[in-house]
Amino acid sequence: MAPKLARPSICGLQAALSACRISTTSTTTMTTITTTTAAAATTTATVTTRTCASAWRAFSTTPSISQSLAVPPESPKFITVPEPPQSAEHRLPPIRGHLPVPRDVFPKRDGNRKVKQEWIDAATPVSKAEAAGEPPKSEEEARRRVFAAARRKALASGITGLYVRKTQRQQRVQARAERRRKANLAAATAPERLDDVLTRPTVRASTALQTTVMPDPDRFAKAEAARERHRQKTELKAEARRDALAQLYVAAQQFIIDEAELEARVEAIFTPDYHRVGGINRGQSIWDQDAAPVSVADLQAEMLGTSSKAIDANKPVAMKTTKRQKAVAEELTGGKL
C-alpha cells in the first residue's frame, strides 16, 4: 500500500491565490538557486517561470490562441490548486457475486422461544464434569472451560440482540404503516378544498339529491314502435326469401338434369365458329353478343321512343304496357311470370 502523502496547506493555497490576483505584471518569476559542493565548487541556478493566467489581460479585440485556450470562469480548473503527485484515496475493490439471503432466525411458529434461558441452556450445554462441580484436571481443560463460557455468553447476548433488533424493526414497520393509514384516512375524509368549491359549476340541490333514474313515461309506446319496426323487417326478409325461391322455380325450367342435355349444350356452344356465324348479335366475343349493360339513359330513351336502336324506337306502346303490367303482377303475386 502506498504511503499517505501530506496535502497542501490552506495557508499556502491562499497565499498563492493572493499573489496571483495582486500581481499586475504578465509573469511572475520564481528563482531557486541550489548550490552543490562537489570536487570543485559549482553553482547551478535553476529558474522556474510560472505564468499567472488570471492576471493576463488582452488589449486586442482579435481572438488569439491564448484566448481560445483560456479556461472559462465556470470551469473547475479556473483556479489552479496544487495536487499531490500521488492520491491518498483508498478505493475498495469491487466485490463480485451476490450475498445469500439470510435465514430467519426467529420464525413465526417459534415466537420468542430462542430468547428464553431454557433454549439457551439447551443450545449450549456444559460438560458432565463441569455440571457435577468437578475442578479442571489441567490447565488446558481450565482454558477450554473459560472459552466455552465465553461462547455461551456471546451466544446469549447475540441472540438477545438479534431479537431486540427484530422487535424494533417490526415496530418501525407497524408505525410506518399506521402513519400511512392515518394519512390516507385523513385525505379521504378531508373536506373539499376552497379552490374546488369556488370553481365547481352551479348545481341545484334538488338535482344533486335526485340520484334515482325515473322511468320513461313513453316507454310502452316506444316499445310498441320498435316491435312494429322489427315485424316489418322480418316480413321484408321473408318476402325476399319467397321471391328468390319463386325465381329459382322459374329458372329451374331451363336446368340441365341429365348428361345427354349437357353434352348437347356443350357441343352447341363450344364450337370454333360459334361467335362468327348465326344470329345478327353474334360477334367475336360474348361482349359482342350481349352488348354493354343497359344504362339509365337507354331505359329513358326506350320509354320516350328516342332510342338509337330501331327495334326499341319502333316498339309499340302495347308492348311497353304489357311489360309494365307483368312487372307489377310479379311484385304483387311474389313470383315470376
Give a topology summary.
Layout: H1 10-22, E1 28-37, E2 41-50, H2 65-68, H3 117-123, H4 128-132, H5 139-189, H6 194-199, H7 205-209, H8 219-251, H9 259-269, H10 286-290, H11 296-304, H12 310-313, H13 317-333
Antiparallel strand pairs: 1-2
Region (Disordered): 83-109, 125-144
Pfam families: mS26 (PF26163)
InterPro entries: mS26_fungi (IPR058940)
Structural features:
337 residues, 2 strands, 50% helix
Question: Could you explain the architecture of this structure?
Answer:
- The protein is mainly alpha-helical and 337 residues long.
- Among the domains are: 108-190, no CATH class; 244-333, no CATH class.
- The chain contains 13 helices and two strands.
- The protein has helices spanning 10-22, 65-68, 117-123, 128-132, 139-189, 194-199, 205-209, 219-251, 259-269, 286-290, 296-304, 310-313, 317-333, and strands spanning 28-37, 41-50.
- It has a two-stranded antiparallel ribbon.
- Residues 5-10 and 20-58 have low confidence and may be disordered.
